[in-house]
Write a structure and sequence with these properties.
The protein is α+β, with helices and mostly antiparallel strands and about 425 residues long. Helix content is about 40%, strand content about 20%. The protein has an 8-stranded mixed beta sheet with strand order 1-5-6-11-10-9-7-8. The protein has a 5-stranded mixed beta sheet with strand order 13-12-14-15-16, with helices on both faces. A 3-stranded antiparallel beta sheet has the order 2-4-3. It starts with 8 loop residues before the first helix and ends with a helix. The chain binds zinc ion (2 copies). One zinc ion binds next to α7.
Length: about 425
């Protein structure tokens, strides 16, 4: 888990700004769910054999005996909210976006954090493939607006529950003859979740995986037509995409569409910036009626790393053009008041009210490269006056405090 230091904040502000801009434009409502949820929310939806639940979830037992989990993702909590607040009665689809921390106990490695942050967009209550297409469009636009270049979307269909039963059986039949030579993880997945084998990055497993049966040969006519329509939308939108028959995503709740978005030069590193898909069966896993839904999440730390890589522009903090120098107790007292007056007038001002020496304060003013220094000495404080010094010209003038704001405004304009 890591601290996000002040120097990082321009990136975080930029991500937040773009996420909210797109959320507003596409008419999504912002939600903040609790960081703790009942453990069952994730066990039932992500699947007991998913890596997240099996190895990565932080869980705790309260004194009252409740079993809670630090949320490892935010899609299941949003479906929980949909059910809990009776959103099925609202006009469909319900469109929701979020931004916040998630927690996974992963092995330490560069760029991976155990507390990291995600933004995400979810459209609940529609099975229309146009929803999937719009979410992919939104995801591409979001990364584009953040300055990430060369984006490509990998896409696949996992079919629905019924298609997947047939596919699982076919995969088991196929891998039965290869599994002995494959990695330890794959042997485990073979027993519990053979689809996940397709995800394996181990060299010794790749060959067998490359020749494995492909899901698209097993999906039913409805699922096929859903996928075909999605691709037609993507074509129409000119979104660069690649069919990846081995894209399965690690979680049980996905059905039909799955996608991952990469910056193209780094696709080999398997680091998707955004990933998502359709999860029509998730509501039922939570014991509610069927709610078809689709969404995506992006890892903010990973996106920011990419923004730095491509030297994306982020807004810098505005630099003050004025520095307030003070000397003595009375001047110090008046300084805080002057600062507040400048804030009310929307004029940015730097200060160092905790310092005593004029020279050290003038040094700071020099370093900041301000246009004006305002000097409030003991005498000026007593006479309700202040010195304005033009730093470049080295000229200074004493004026009544009451005229300070007007004088500063005039000089900043010229
Ligand atoms: Zn493997
Ligand atoms: Zn199907």
């Amino acid at each position: 888990m890591h601290d996000i230091l002040p120097e990082e904040s321009p990136y975080w502000e930029k991500v937040r700004q773009i996420v909210f801009e797109l959320g507003q434009f596409y008419d999504f409502g912002f939600i903040q769910t609790p960081i703790l949820e009942m453990q069952g929310i994730f066990e039932r939806t992500l699947g007991l054999s998913s890596d997240v639940v099996e190895k990565e979830m932080y869980t705790l037992k309260t004194k009252g005996g409740d079993e809670l989990a630090l949320r490892p993702e935010i899609t299941a909590p949003i479906m929980r909210a949909y059910i809990q607040h009776g959103w099925a009665a609202a006009p469909q689809p319900v469109k929701i976006f979020y931004l916040g921390p998630v927690f996974r106990h992963e092995n330490p490695q560069a760029g991976r954090f155990r507390q990291f942050h995600q933004f995400g967009f979810e459209t609940l209550g529609s099975e229309d493939p146009v929803v999937d297409a719009q979410l992919i469009q939104l995801a591409m636009a979001l990364l584009g607006d953040l300055g990430v270049k060369g984006l490509i979307c990998e896409v696949n269909s996992l079919g629905d529950k019924l298609c997947r039963i047939k596919y699982r059986a076919a995969l088991k039949d196929y891998f039965r003859y290869h599994i002995k030579k494959m990695c330890h993880n794959c042997q485990h997945r073979f027993k519990h979740n053979p689809l996940r084998i397709l995800d394996c990055k181990e060299e010794k497993c790749r060959e067998a995986i490359a020749k494995a049966p492909q899901i698209l040969d097993f999906i039913c006519d409805d699922c096929r037509s859903h996928f075909k329509k999605l691709l037609e939308f993507l074509d129409e939108l000119n979104i660069p995409y690649l069919l990846n028959p081995h894209l399965v995503r690690g979680l049980d709740y996905y059905s039909r569409t799955v996608f991952e978005i990469y910056a193209e030069d780094r696709r080999s590193a398997q680091a998707a910036l955004i990933s998502g898909g359709r999860y029509d069966g998730l509501a039922e896993l939570l014991g509610a009626k069927n709610v078809p839904a689709c969404g995506f999440a992006g890892g903010i730390e990973r996106v920011i790393a990419e923004m730095k890589e491509v030297k994306a522009r982020v807004p810098q903090r505005p630099q003050p053009k004025i520095f307030l120098v003070q000397l003595g107790d009375l001047a110090k007292k008046k300084s805080l008041k002057i600062l507040e007056e400048f804030r009310e007038h929307g004029i940015l001002m730097a200060e160092s009210v905790s310092r005593h020496s004029i020279r050290s304060q003038m040094n700071i003013a020099d370093k900041l490269g301000v246009k004006l220094a305002l000097i409030l000495g003991q005498k000026e404080a007593l006479d309700n006056e202040i010195i304005i010094r033009d730093m470049a010209a080295g000229m200074q003038e004493t004026i009544p405090l009451a005229k300070l704001i007007a004088e500063v405004k005039k000089r900043l304009k010229s």
